[in-house]
Amino acid sequence: MPREIDAKFIQERTAHLEGLWDDAHRNWEVIDSFYHQTNKLWPDTVHRPSLHTARATSIIDHAVDNFLSGEPRVHRNPAGQGRVHKERADLIEPWLQRIMISTGMLEPIPTWKQVAKNMAMYGYSVVEGPVLSMADMPEEPEKEKGESKLDFNARMSLYKNEKRTWMPFRVRAPHPARILLDPSEKQPREGVKRVRRYAIQLEEITEHKDTKLKDVVLFEAKNEPYRLVECLEYWTKEWHALVAEGVLLFKERNTWGYVPFVHAFAGWGQEATDTHEPNPADLAKGLLTPLLDDLKAQSQAFTGRQHALIEATFEKWGTTGDASEIANQLKNSDIVDGIGPNDLWKIHGTQLQSWLFESDANIDRDIEMGSFSRSLAGGRETGVSTVGQQAILSTAASKRFVTPSRQIEQMATIIGSRILRLMDVLDEPIQVGEFKVGPKEIDHDYGVDVRFELVDPVLQLEQRQLGMAEVNAGLKSKETYWAADAKLEDVEGEKMRMLAEMVESSPEVVAIMAQEVARRNGLLDLLQSLTAADEAPAPGGGSGLVGPNGNPLNGANQTPSAAAAELRQPLTGNVPTPARVNPAAFGG
Question: Under a CB-based contact definition with an 8 Å cutoff, are residues 563 and 553 in contact?
Answer without folding.
Answer: yes
